[in-house]
Amino acid sequence: MSDYMISSEVLNPYAVGPAQGMQDIQRHESGNAIAAEGEARAIASIKAQVIMAKQFPRDPELAMERILNECKRATLAEQAVYSFPRGKEMVTGPSIRLAEMLARNFGNITFGYEELERRPAQGGKPGSSVIRAYAWDFETNMVVERKFEVRHWRNLKNGNGYAITDERDIYEYVANMASRRVRACILQIIPGDVTDAAVAACKYTAGNKISVMMANPQQRGVVVAKMVKLYEGMGVTLDDLETYLACKSADWTADHMLKLKEIKNALDDNTTTLGDLFPRLAVDNKNEVVTKEQVKALMEAAKATGYQGNVTAELKKMGIAKFADVPAKRYEEVMQMIQGFGLPVEEEKKELPMGEGAEQMKV
């Protein structure tokens, strides 16, 4: 065989050649053997899921029944749909919670996100994370993914901001940013008619529950008051809500309440902002949150009470998910709420004089 024929030989690009000589030794000595083992386990796990998906394929009719049954749960339905105005149109779609439910019940789908790379802060610039969000249908082998970079930086409405350095804060911020991409990946895999049916079913469930409550004069006042208080926790006043709905609260109907729930879902999913919905807040910078130092002060105050669980529950009643989301102008209000819990019972007993402690023990 001539040299020309040897050089012209077509090799199989998918063939895996054996490791050779010193290169193989160096690869193992450099620690890649451990990485290779982890990679092999991951591949084996994926292969197992693909095989199971082939052996037990989804039943579309049964999957649709499961999805519609889930949509009958009021607690899910109320968080399932978001809506917000964009120009002269109203944008409506499935929330992150609904997308996750669709993937679970449609079957043989995995989804999530992973941090591919952590880039440290340099030269005064904040660090960042390179993230991959994905959804994978094991039956069709369709993979949808999004790769993006998340700066470890929290923007404030006034154009300023601050770097996020605490590991827990970074994790929560990255997870929040990734959830929207995961939803997009899931919805690209789930058939559109399935998603539309789920959205319609959830709107029916949520609307039906609100209609029944609004039809009862006694329950109506409670429902309206809770909704107003929820938005007040975000700095939105009753006047803001009435202006947005172009209707006084005394005349609010079930449709108005459903609309307020849906824009709250849009805010929770970071699909829109308070400033976009209520221009006054954008002008007054009401979206500005507390500083990192204030967050730390709130956390320490809550820990000192010994009632962290109660503090967290009360914070949610105020319409605030976590300390990092506390509006700057509500810092004193939240701090007073925390301090209102006082010291744990055990600590109070220690500080009381013997006589007073004995009297309380008797009581």
Structure description:
With 363 residues, the protein is α+β, with helices and mostly antiparallel strands. The protein has three domains: 135 residues, no CATH class; 65 residues, no CATH class; 57 residues, no CATH class. Helix content is 58%, strand content 13%. It contains 18 helices and seven strands. Strands 3-4-5 form a three-stranded antiparallel beta sheet, covered by helices on one side. A hairpin with an 8-residue loop joins strand 3 and strand 4.
Primary descriptors:
363 residues, alpha+beta, 3 domains, three-stranded antiparallel β-sheet, 18 helices, 58% helix, disordered C terminus
Write the layout of secondary structure elements.
Elements: H1 3-7, H2 21-29, H3 32-55, H4 60-70, H5 74-80, E1 81-86, E2 89-94, H6 96-106, E3 109-119, E4 128-137, E5 142-151, E6 153-155, E7 161-163, H7 167-189, H8 192-215, H9 217-232, H10 238-245, H11 254-268, H12 274-277, H13 279-284, H14 292-305, H15 308-317, H16 331-339, H17 345-351, H18 354-362
Antiparallel strand pairs: 1-2, 3-4, 4-5, 6-7
Helix pairs in contact: 4-6, 5-6, 5-8, 6-7, 8-9, 8-11, 14-16
The N- and C-terminal alpha carbons lie at a distance of 104 Å
- Total of domains: 3
Report the C-alpha radius of gyration, rounded.
Answer: 27 Å
Number of helices: 18
Shape: globular
Largest β sheet strand count, sense and barrel closure: 3 strands, antiparallel
Can you summarize this structure?
With 363 residues, the protein is α+β, with helices and mostly antiparallel strands. Helix content is 58%, strand content 13%.
